[in-house]
Amino acid sequence: MTTASAGKTVPLPFSSASERNKDPILKILVDAFRECKHVLEIGSGTGQHAVHFARRLPQLMWQATDLPENLPDLTQRIEREGSSNLLPPIALDVRIHPWPVASIDGVFSANTFHIMDWDSAGHFFRGVGEGLQPGGALCIYGPFRYGGRYTSDSNAAFDRDLRARDPASGIRDFEAVNELAEKQGLALLADHAMPANNQTLVWMRAGGQPLSLVASPVASSRNHGQMGGSMSGQGGGTTG
After folding, report:
1. What torsion do the CA atoms of 174, 177, 183, 188 make, to the nearest 10 degrees?
2. Which terminus of the chain has fewer Cβ atoms in its 10 Å neighbourhood, N or C?
């Protein structure tokens, strides 16, 4: 996809990994967000996920967000490709509270937890705890470790690369992430194994009707200890 600038055609940022993973993720979101009306996406990146999910989930109002410096390209994609239920993107830094949103009953984020530092992860869940309505759903996509073990050799190599570039980044331990979620009144409903050694984790905020997820139930951490498989994707919001 391209956009015009000063008489020239300038290509918009494009993630091949987002194209590969958008349909597997969508299969989870159809069920997880079926009772939702307003979904907030954290770290929308290129906007490919936002465009795709809003088109396929027309009952939702989808709010894309990213850091201020990433908004120009995200805005261009949404203006050119977005459906009527995809709202103009807004600037959101998870570390700044309160978040500039209201009345959300769904939150989605892809490939952000291995990019943000651990302090920001805590702020992420604080923001979700402050803004997500009772009965709302949180879905996080990306690679995780279980019991301190990687789900593949390639994820271990990916984690080494991440930490070499930024020691504050890296693949997070599922148990530590789930502890942050529980402190905000979120209960884990499902842990879905995804392509390219990723997971989609689904939590629900207490106070709503229980969801009966049709896909993978909550997986035991001991089932994630096997090594092997392909390299997981790289880059916040745009990876495999």
Report:
1. -50
2. N
For residue 233, being part of any structural domain is answered with: no
Whether pLDDT at 231 is above 60: no
Nearest partner of 107 among 130, 91, 88, judged by Cα = 130
Question: Which residue, 56, 40, 53, is CA-closest to 103?
Answer: 40
Position 229 in a domain? no
* Nearest Cα to Cα of residue 217 among 188, 195, 197, 178: 188
Going by their DSSP bridges, the two strands 132-142 and 104-110 should be labelled as parallel
Residues across the chain: 240
Tell me, what CATH number does 67's domain have? 3.40.50.150
Helix residue ranges per DSSP H, the chain: 16-32, 48-56, 71-81, 118-131, 153-165, 174-183
* 156 burial type by CB count under 10 A (0-12 exposed, 13-18 middle, 19+ buried): middle
Instruction: Quote the tokens at residue 67.
Output: 């850091």
pLDDT digits (tens, 9 = 90+) for 148-183: 999 999 999 999 999 999 999 999 999 999 999 999
What is the number of structural domains in the chain?
1
**5 φ, ψ to 5°?**
-145, 115
Classify residue 4: in a domain, yes or no: no
Q: CB count, 10 Å around CB of 235?
A: 16
The pLDDT score that the predictor gives to residue 134 is 96
pTM, two decimals, is 0.86
Tell me what pLDDT residue 6 has.
54
